[in-house]
């Protein structure tokens, strides 16, 4: 259907700054303004050319915010931080994500050569990362080769612990067990209580083999110095309480032997009380406090014990027990006077 329209009158273009937005006046102005507009265009172009070389993209902020994102970024940062094991390890991870395992190995070797010899901890971090890389992507022989080299340049016992931990983290528990067994057969390591305690903890928690863990204590006491026996024995007792495969009654038995040998060791009493309280064994806690305050301890220690005992009963909300503790405290003070 046709619609009649009124004739459209020519409209002058909207001119802003000399530019015609509709283009209607171009034909009229072309002859007179052509030379002038060309000159202006050339001038603008010259100004742009002069400005363009000065415009540079500064990516320093992005590097600080997101970290190195390319090989060039890592290489540039390493020039300023050659002893940073964290940066070297990030570089290795970057290559591994690109499936460039060999390049990651090369970076680790570069790091070991580059990091200053006095930066022992930084070097140790790289050795550990290289071990982890071989465990994940290499073979038993490549792990063994790197491990032997690492032991030559670092504390051998610490490297054994690092290797065992790497196997544990990656779920290779049989391999970790082999490392621990080697450690308990190495005289240089057996004098350290940590060797036995870490192995026992591993057997309790990861292999669920408490019998083998308990069998370590007699061997350990034959190897560690005499002065370390008490603490090591207590640590084994605490494993019985804390491990899901432990036996709390066995732990109590070990603690009782310790208390009969060291009846005035305040720290042993307090740790056992804290363990029983954490396990919610309120009657056991009461018995321990009662035994302790009835064995003639010094007044300053007794004051602390009664204070903790009273707080324990108040937290439990037992009014009768609170009064009992107060009465016991009063009896103790009267006896002292």
TrEMBL record:
Signal sequence interval, chain numbering: none
Lineage top rank: taxon: Eukaryota
Alphabetized InterPro entries for the sequence: HAT (IPR003107), Rrp5 (IPR045209), TPR-like_helical_dom_sf (IPR011990)
SUPFAM superfamilies recorded: TPR-like
The name this protein goes by in its record: rRNA biogenesis protein rrp5
Basic and acidic residues bias spans: 52-62
Record's keyword terms, sorted: Repeat, rRNA processing
The keyword rRNA processing belongs to this UniProt entry's keyword annotation: yes
Region (Disordered): 1-62
């Amino acid at each position: 259907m046709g619609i009649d329209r009124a004739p459209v009158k020519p409209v002058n273009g909207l001119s802003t700054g000399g530019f015609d937005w509709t283009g209607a006046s171009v034909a009229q102005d072309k002859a007179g303004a052509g030379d002038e507009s060309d000159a202006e265009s050339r001038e603008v172009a010259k100004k742009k050319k002069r400005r363009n070389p000065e415009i540079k993209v500064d990516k320093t902020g992005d590097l600080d915010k997101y970290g190195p994102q390319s090989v060039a970024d890592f290489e540039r940062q390493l020039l300023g931080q050659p002893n940073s094991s964290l940066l070297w390890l990030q570089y290795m991870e970057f290559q591994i994500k690109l499936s460039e395992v060999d390049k990651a190995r090369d970076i680790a070797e570069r790091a070991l050569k580059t990091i200053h010899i006095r930066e022992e901890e930084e070097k140790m971090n790289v050795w550990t990362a290289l071990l982890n890389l071989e465990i994940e992507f290499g073979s038993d022989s490549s792990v063994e080769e790197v491990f032997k080299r690492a032991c030559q340049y670092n504390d051998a016992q610490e490297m054994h612990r690092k290797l065992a931990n790497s196997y544990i983290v990656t779920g290779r528990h049989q391999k970790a067990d082999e490392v621990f067994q080697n450690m308990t057969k190495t005289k240089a390591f057996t004098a350290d209580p940590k060797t036995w305690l870490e192995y026992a903890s591993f057997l309790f928690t990861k292999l669920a083999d408490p019998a083998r863990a308990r069998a370590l204590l007699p061997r350990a006491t034959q190897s560690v110095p005499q002065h370390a026996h008490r603490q090591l024995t207590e640590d084994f007792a605490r494993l019985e309480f804390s491990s899901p495969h432990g036996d709390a009654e066995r732990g109590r038995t070990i603690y009782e032997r310790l208390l009969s040998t060291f009846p005035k060791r305040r720290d042993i009493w307090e740790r056992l009380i804290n363990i029983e309280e954490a396990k919610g064994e309120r009657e056991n806690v009461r018995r321990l406090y009662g035994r302790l305050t009835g064995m003639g301890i010094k007044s300053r220690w007794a004051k602390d014990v009664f204070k903790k005992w009273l707080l324990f009963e108040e937290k439990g909300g037992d009014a009768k027990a609170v009064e009992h503790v107060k009465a016991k405290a009063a009896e103790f003070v009267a006896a002292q006077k």
